[in-house]
Amino acid sequence: MGLNDLSHLLAVLFALLVATKVFGVLAQRLGQPSVVGELLAGVFLGKSLLGILDPADPVIHDLAQLGVIVLLFEIGLHTDVRSLFKAGPAAMVVAIVGVVIPFGLGYGVCIALGLAAIPAVVTGAALTATSIGISARTLSDLGQLRTTEGQIVLGAAVLDDIIGLVILSVVAGLVSGRAVSVGGVALTSAIAVGFIVVALVLGNLFVPPFFRFVDRVEASGTLGIAALAFAFLMAALAAMAGSATIIGAFAAGLVLHNTPQRSRIDSATTSLGHFFVPIFFAVVGAAVELGTLANLHALAIGGALVGVGIAGKVIAGFGPFWFKGRKLLIGVAMIPRGEVGLIFAQMGLATASLTSELYSAIALMVLVTTFVTPPFLALMVRSEQHHADISERPGDGGIDDLVAGAAQHRD
Fold first, then answer.
1. pLDDT digits (tens, 9 = 90+) for 344-367
2. CB neighbour list of residue 377: distance below 8 Å, 6 or more residues apart
3. 215 found inside a domain
4. Disulfide-capable partner of 286 in 46, 70, 115, 361 (CB 3.0 to 4.6 Å)?
């Protein structure tokens, strides 16, 4: 990298960090999660408007990937494996329904609009996987990540990523003309699930003693560096095993959740996350080209995909019929597609199985599902809190006050 390249990168990072912080604070002042502002900052800096942030730049792309790895590591640190397993059956149903219905609806919409089978399959696949980064960050901002509903969403989103890896391998085979075998699909699934299981079993045996040793080393920053090194190692191992880096980072956080040093590890990674994580969300926003919305046909297809994309995930929230909690909140939290949908769309465009028009339609679906979820979730949570405050307020004329008044009168 030459001097000019370095100065350009520094200028882009300056604009990116300032914009994400300013837009994030403005979003919070408006009662929305800061992730909304960070996504908008990406759109503002992207080629649709200022043209400062190029999401295809290799350095920016790698920084964004580091951001999502740090984010998933932080989420794993705050996730109790027992709570995740407790939510397992409900999460599994939400994940499966949230893949099958959006895929079927997306495929059906494309076929009804006269598209060929392969573009319809790629489009349906782009509707399947929830963006765990956006959903988890939004729920965390709203204080809902550790609730039962939050754990179901988290578990379902992780399963979504695993299923998404399987679908991606199948679709990649279809668009390249290769035969898709049952064995290949089973192997991809086994690697993703097996990696998390092996990481938890071996990690709980060998990692805690290692971090006890690191904790005795009296050097500033040693504990945080060791934790981040472990997260990066797990992410690299997951990728080498044929899974996703975010699966490895999440597993690393799960392993360290029960260590006595967790709070100090969390403090160290949070500081790093303030730098890297907003880059990830800004890049997701910058990948959206507003100019593509001028095409009316793409707009019509995109509108239909938005409708089935939202409906499919909301329906998935009601999949676990035995669960008595806030099913609508679960369904809404599963809506954003974010970078996952764009990965499918970019693969389809690169292999010529998608036209630029259909790519624009998928980008519109990604844009809308990504942006509507955080404010809608914030509105739902604030409404629930408002109603809870009213129900707890004394003297509101409710039946409890009448009963209490009558008892006081008898005394």
1. 776 677 667 777 778 778 878 887
2. 33, 138, 139, 142, 144, 329, 332, 333
3. yes
4. 46
In this prediction, residue 404 carries a pLDDT of 40
CA 161/CA 89 separation, integer angstroms = 17
Q: How many independent structural domains does the chain possess?
A: 1
2 within a domain of the structure (yes/no): no
Each residue's pLDDT tens digit, 278-336: 888 888 778 777 776 677 878 888 899 999 999 999 999 999 888 888 899 999 999 98
Mutual orientation of helices 148-175 and 132-141 as an angle, nearest 10°? 160
Which residue in the block uniquely carries the two structure tokens 């999502």?
68
169: domain CATH number is 1.20.1530.20
Query: How crowded is the C-beta side of 258, counted as CA atoms within 13 Å?
Result: 14
Note down the domain range covering 198: 14-410
**Burial annotation 217-238 (CB, 10 A radius, 16+ → b, else e):** eeeeeebbebbbebbbebbebb
How far from each other are the two terminal CA atoms of the chain, in whole angstroms?
84
For residue 213, being part of any structural domain is answered with yes
Asked whether residue 201 is assigned to any structural domain, the reply reads: yes
Kindly report the three-state secondary structure assignment for every residue of the chain.
Answer: CCHHHHHHHHHHHHHHHHHHHHHHHHHHHCCCCHHHHHHHHHHHHCCCCCCCCCCCCHHHHHHHHHHHHHHHHHHHHCCCHHHHHHCHHHHHHHHHHHHHHHHHHHHHHHHHCCCCHHHHHHHHHHCCCCCHHHHHHHHHHCCCCCCHHHHHHHHHHHHHHHHHHHHHHHHHHHHCCCCCCHHHHHHHHHHHHHHHHHHHHHHHHHHHHHHHHHHHCCCCCHHHHHHHHHHHHHHHHHHHCCCCHHHHHHHHHHHHCCCCCHHHHHHHHHHHHHHHHHHHHHHHHHCCCHHHHHCHHHHHHHHHHHHHHHHHHHHHHCCCCCCCCCHHHHHHHCCCCHHHHHHHHHHHHHCCCCCHHHHHHHHHHHHHHHHHHHHHHHHHHHHHHHHHHHHHCCCCCCHHHHHHHHHHHHC
Q: Are 27 and 13 in contact (CB under 8 A)?
A: no
pLDDT at 101 over 90: yes
Q: How many alpha carbons fall within 13 Å on the CB side of residue 296?
A: 0
